Amino acid sequence: MRLIAQIGEWFDRRLQLAAPIREAAEHAVPRNTASWWYVFGSAALTVFLLQLVTGILLALIYVPSASEAWSSLQALNHDVTLGWFIRALHGWGSNFMVAIVLIHMVQVFLFGAYKFPRELTWIIGVFLLLMTLGMAFSGQVLRFDQDAYWGLGIGASIASRVPIFGPAIVKLMLGGPIIAGATLSRFFALHVFVIPAMLIGFVCLHLLMVLKLGINEWPMPGRIVKRATYESEYHQLTKKDGAPFVPYAVWKDLFFAAFILLAVAACAVYFGPFGPTGRPDPTIIQTVPKPDYFFLWLYALLSLLPPSLETPALLIGPVIVIAGLVLLPFLSGEGEKSWRRRPIAVLTVLLIAVTLGTFTHLAGFTPWSPHMNAWSGDPVPERFLHGTTALERQGALVFQVKQCRNCHSLGESGGQRGPALDNVAARLTQDQLIRQVIQGGGNMPAYGRNLSPAETTALVAFLATLHPAGQAPAREAARDVVLKQSGSAP
Amino acid sequence: MSNENVLSRRGLLMKMGVLFNGLVATALTVPIVRFVLSSITRGRANAYLSWVPLGSVSEFPEGETRMATFRNPYVTPTDGKTVDTACWVRRVAGDEFQVFAVNCAHLGCPVRWFPQSGLFMCPCHGGAYYRDGSRASGPPERGLFEYPHKIENGLVTIQAGELPTPGLSATLLGKKPPCA
In chain A, which residue's Cα lies nearest the Cα of B127? Predict the structure, then answer.
């Protein structure tokens, strides 16, 4: 024991770090900040450290070359002892990191912690969020599989829409005219050197400011932040009702950090690593590329925006969002901190959460995408064929063969791009059906050129049978009148 | 030196040191920037684009659309399979061809050809195109990208080398297909 103390003294005489570290650890924090709500920042840091360690371990095997990367991932998954586990830790770590950073941000926002004097801490936090998302995207690229390849294509298509500079930005991003070796190499450099270096620097600044400015006190309704008085009030608070951070508050951080690491490890063991999916071979087009979890909402948004709004939304939207986040502490740097007195802040968070959640949910089953195999794979349910004529059955065949099923469901199977057709005859008259099939419209292609008159007749005859048992098919009222006047029954 | 207006010897040397570093940094910036931007500047000279054959005319039956693959004309040693590219070749009649990029004009996902319904469909966001490449429905704002093509010695040849993206439409792949 004495030897260890002596060695410690030897080092500290030279480093002189013990005193400042002790001072930082034992600095007084407001007593009520020793809360389970205050653990997300340290949890984000913990997961970031896990990402650093597992990232370095992966780099021992991974080859950042477009021709080798996929095979080296296979080797990690199958040949290297516990390679699959390190990949799984890194992949799940990234999911957890994005989630925890977002939760941390919401907590800071709702607790008013971005207000004076912690504006810069918040702004750096915004950049840390952007870098975390940058790590998530570049990490998905390094998992160089089909999703990564086509994901890069989507990124390039978005970047190319920038006016004037678009094509140049695409070439800069891809490292050449196409997605190839240079593309992977530069995303490797971004993911492994550039963004982590910036992250480490910004995390240090972020932490330094938390230490210098003190942790945000628990917001009390009615306790108003004013630039003139806040600092002395905070000083008073820590003096009167403060406790040393270590050990008074730190134990909760420690417990939560360990719990999060355990959760990441549990997910890694239970669910395993992400991919890689198929080889990144652009000649294999039988693929349905999808982004990773945290970008699914964007995938949904890009399908649902009207085409004319897409480019402006893609190019101006992020600028507005980032500017809004950066300007937030300047727009409301003073005033109430408590969420109980800030209903608009709470509603904003709820609105954003519900929006992102809905988009993510929709992207899980992509109702806007045609089901590429529905026409050949999904059977026509028996009840739609029972008691039908030969012509109507021929129509059912046309319905399948012409891939109508890829976008329209029958009996709940098939695409959801267009409306379900189970009851279409109750909505559209025969004439309307013919017009819709031949001319298209309302986001449906025109089939006039691809159907012979006989096929159209058969198809419409089949569609006209699709109505509920007790409900007559739609008819044109005027036609009934005309037929009645001319003396023949309808 | 108590007078602040007088430049001391040390002060002058320090300023010269800063200036010297500034000059060296500027001199180094030029090659660094040129290196970083090399992927753009080379593209401007159009060195990427060249004519590549897809196969003989007889491989593509009249009135049909077939997939063809080609190797990107510009290859580096670490590219692996990524330089192999697919495209859709439509032989309208005789020597009249259309060669479409597989990349959807919306966000670049690979579109698939369905001969039965005469449509190209995109699996990502639901874009659809008619057989002549014009937009049928969905989020794309235009028709499929077309490669410039010619028939040479009985071979269908296209000018390729760049990833078709919506932003390129103004320059390389500007020819919009006629409306269906």
Answer: A369
A279 Cα to chain B: minimum distance (Å):
9
Q: Of A365, A394, A421, which residue constitutes the final position of a domain?
A: A365
Contact of B156 with B104, CB cutoff 8 Å: no
Give the residue among B71, B111, B105 at the shortest CA–CA distance from B177.
B105
What CA–CA distance (Å, rounded) separates A348 from A352?
Answer: 6
Same-domain check for residues B26 and B60: no
User: Quick check: A307 and B180 CB within 8 A?
Assistant: no
Mean pLDDT score of chain A, rounded to an integer?
Answer: 92
Which structural domain range is residue A129 located in? Answer: 28-365
pLDDT above 50 (res B170): no
Number of domains in chain A: 2
Does the model's ipTM exceed the 0.85 cut?
Answer: yes
End-to-end Cα spacing for chain A = 105
pLDDT tens string B9-52: 999 999 999 999 999 999 999 999 999 998 888 655 556 788 99
With cut-offs at 50, 70 and 90, classify the pLDDT of residue A292: confident
Tell me the shortest Cα–Cα distance from B54 to chain A, in angstroms: 13
Structural domain boundaries enclosing B132 = 49-170
Q: Looking at the complex, report in whole angstroms how far the Cα of residue B65 sits from the nearest Cα belonging to chain A.
A: 14
Here the CATH number for the domain that contains residue A74 is 1.20.810.10
* B168 neighbourhood in chain A, CB within 8 Å: 160, 166-167, 170
Q: Residue B111 has which token pair? A: 């579109």
Check whether B53 has a pLDDT greater than 60. Answer: yes
C-alpha distance from residue A230 to each of A214, A260, A331, A341 (Å): 12, 34, 17, 18
* B65 and B32 within one domain: no
Q: Is residue A138 located within the same domain as residue A259? A: yes
Number of domains in chain B: 2
